[in-house]
Specification:
By secondary structure, the protein is of the alpha/beta class. The chain folds into three domains: about 70 residues, Rossmann fold (3-Layer(aba) Sandwich); about 260 residues, Mur-like, catalytic domain (UDP-N-acetylmuramoyl-L-alanine:D-glutamate ligase); about 150 residues, Mur ligase, C-terminal domain (Protein-Tyrosine Phosphatase, Chain A), CATH 3.90.190.20. The chain is built from 15 helices and 26 strands. Helix 10 runs parallel beside helix 11 and helix 11 crosses helix 13. The chain is globular, with a radius of gyration of 23 Å.
Amino acid sequence: MAPLACLLRELGHRVRGSDAPLYPPTSELLADAGIEPLVGYDPAHLEPRPDLVIVGNAVPRTNPQAMATEQLGLPRLSMPEALDRFVLRDRRPLVVAGSHGKTTTTAMAAWVYSRAGADPGYLIGGAPIGLPSGFALGGGPRFAIEGDEYNASYFDRGPKFWHYRPETVILTSLEHDHVDLYPDFEGLERAFLGLVERLPASGLLIACADYPAVERVARASPCRVVTYGAGTNGGVTSSTVTNGAGTEGSASRGAASNGSGTTGAGSRTAGSGDVRLAGPIESRENGIAFELEEAGGRQRIELGVWGEHNAANATAVWLAARADGLDPEAVLEALATFRGVKRRLEVVAEAAGVVVIDDFAHHASEIAASLSALRQRFPGRRLVALFEPRSLTAGRRQFAADLAAALASADRVFLAPVFHRERLGGEGFDPERLAADIGRLGAAATVCDSNDALHESALAEARPGDVLVTMSSGSFDGMPRRLRRSLFSAGA
């Protein structure tokens, strides 16, 4: 909502708004745009009467200002409806959707298109490193936007990305998430199906074939489909698939997911137009490098971040940029200088011989990918995972086995309290059982009864050479910064 307010201000509209007390960086973002938010939801904040009220999806029907908006008959829109009306209608939206990797892939696309001189607009659910902010109006035709499958508002219950007028879609993944909104996987799959069906016949779907559900959804595409994914050799592949528009070829598939979060082995076939990894991913001081084998030969790609999942993300952006005719050399240079997004494997401290990493991972697949990337970046070092089950999905018993398998790839695990324990009730997992399952899989795990206790326990065990990674979809009580302060204090 804050970036949207800034975009509307840049377009020349007079903008004001109401919220709970705001803090940096959001408060600074609004101040720089000349917007002073009002604190609280007093209906008096609607005076003088606005021409339009935009309602965020965190606002319930019982919100006093929302109720007053209805009683006064004021025009209203959800956030994605407003973005569609004011920003996207005259643009070519590049929508990045999927269960994982949306923020990083959207940021990577914004960085690449910007560095290649395409002057894109963009709206990203994070803070990209190297860009002025997570949003820009831009002057070029492309507008890169993170496509969120969560609902738009209390009066607009469909997913946000249905409003984004996709001209090109990158579909990174599809696994069961947001169980509070999508109790069954079929409902989530239908949401993504609706996005793909909104593509024009002249559009493009770039889909990750690692996920059977993505392949199912891709079959409904009315336009050309190009697939990419992790090959059986741990690499990256891409090929064109058959769809309703008549595009010929066969899909590639690597490690496959059953849609519930469990990863299993898959087969891979190369089709016409196939682009695949030629050899293993190379870990370097400033990121990774890999080669794609294309029809015209081999193409080496260097990337300024780590992890096989980021190699896949980069492949998707490479395919989008090539389809848009961007200069290949400029695209390659941009990928090599991409430095990621804050809170996505972000190094926040190096003190007393210990590295502290802040990561947003909260789904089992994301945790596994992040820990694998850290192994790649810090080979031979002890990897300590500090995990807060923050989301309603992360704390559910039905995903506990996947969670245990993912966390067990660390050397040591500390588990914070389940954030929504009371709300989840009997659907929440048993922390002690989860810790025991992690232990049986080879990593010692400790259940902490508070975040303060976790902070003290992790510090007590930290030793030079350790890599401590905090994993949460929320603030985690500022855990990464608290660890940084404590380590610097100990070092002094």
